[in-house]
């Protein structure tokens, strides 16, 4: 590409210790990708930098794979979302695309994340699909999950690609566990991010989720299904204690607003610089506030100036105050 055809905003900053030839070749690559993927220079540079492997493989290989994917009708945005595609060999991708088409996707982009799966494993998934697709709602487990959870198929595919057991567990079990999670208001993305819960017995899943409901847990999580019983009970106990401490307040923010005497907007601003404060267990927040306000003699204003103190343990706070007193502070 002649230098006169490269706009100033198409030129990236030189990298430390980069030779001029490498710098020139990299900019040519970025310009070509920008045209192929129909995106801006910043986006394509971020795309290349998203993988250390893409920064070292031959540039012609990158261009060839991108062109091949586009010929296969993979949308540019789909390529951008899955940079690992460029690390695959064309002859391997060719076989994988045959497998994807064999499962009759509504749109090819729905199944693109499954290209991460090895050819052998993908072939097994195709055979499983051929056996069961007539009796699966949506004609594919991926679409079944997508429809039930109201999540884009390509997002479901992303998580199934790393949890391939989801293609093989008994469908009635999958359906029963998913129905339980939906009934107990487990958030769709939380379900997808922790699919290991589907490896458990439905009765065990229901028992655990019911325990969470009895404890009035607002956002039950899949990990509650698979964690050891003592951890679950401890977590539920903390949830009950937190709710008791909050009283008429719905959130930690409202509790702090009430205890420190600030309006909600002001308290929101104070904690915005230290968001970790809002994730501290309520029993700990109350314990530290009681100590600082009632025993140590600090004012609400003092605490609002340094809200991060609520993240420290009571023992640490007490120890440091003792040290300060020893120094005459």
UniProtKB/TrEMBL annotation:
One GO cellular component term: mitochondrial matrix
GO biological process: termination of mitochondrial transcription
Keyword Transit peptide: yes
Coiled-coil stretches: none
Record GO terms (molecular function): nucleic acid binding
Keywords for the protein's UniProt record, in alphabetical order: Transit peptide
Record keyword Transit peptide present: yes
Family, as annotated: Belongs to the mTERF family.
Name this protein carries in UniProt: Putative mitochondrial transcription termination factor
Organism of origin: Phlebotomus kandelakii
């Amino acid at each position: 590409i002649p230098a006169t055809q490269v706009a100033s905003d198409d030129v990236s900053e030189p990298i430390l210790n980069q030779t001029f030839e490498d710098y020139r070749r990299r900019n040519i690559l970025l310009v070509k990708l920008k045209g192929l993927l129909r995106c801006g220079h910043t986006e394509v540079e971020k795309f290349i930098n998203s993988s250390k492997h893409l920064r070292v493989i031959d540039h012609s290989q990158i261009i060839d794979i991108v062109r091949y994917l586009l010929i296969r009708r993979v949308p540019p945005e789909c390529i951008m979302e899955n940079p690992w595609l460029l690390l695959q060999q064309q002859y391997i991708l060719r076989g994988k695309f045959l497998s994807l088409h064999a499962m009759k996707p509504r749109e090819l982009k729905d199944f693109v994340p499954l290209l991460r799966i090895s050819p052998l494993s993908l072939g097994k998934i195709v055979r499983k699909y051929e056996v069961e697709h007539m009796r699966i709602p949506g004609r594919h487990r991926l679409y079944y999950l997508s429809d039930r959870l109201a999540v884009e198929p390509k997002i479901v595919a992303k998580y199934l690609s790393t949890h391939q057991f989801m293609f093989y567990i008994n469908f009635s079990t999958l359906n029963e566990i998913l129905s339980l999670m939906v009934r107990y208001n487990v958030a769709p993305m939380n379900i997808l991010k922790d699919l290991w819960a589907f490896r458990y017995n439905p009765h065990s899943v229901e028992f655990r989720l019911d325990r969470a409901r009895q404890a009035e847990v607002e956002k039950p999580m899949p990990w509650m299904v698979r964690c050891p019983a003592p951890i679950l009970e401890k977590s539920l106990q903390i949830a009950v204690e937190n709710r008791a401490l909050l009283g008429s307040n719905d959130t930690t923010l409202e509790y702090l607003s009430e205890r420190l005497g600030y309006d909600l907007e002001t308290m929101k601003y104070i904690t915005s610089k230290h968001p970790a404060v809002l994730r501290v267990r309520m029993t700990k927040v109350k314990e530290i506030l009681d100590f600082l306000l009632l025993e140590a003699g600090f004012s609400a204003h003092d605490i609002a100036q340094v809200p991060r103190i609520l993240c420290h343990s009571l023992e640490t706070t007490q120890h440091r105050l003792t040290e300060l007193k020893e120094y005459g502070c």
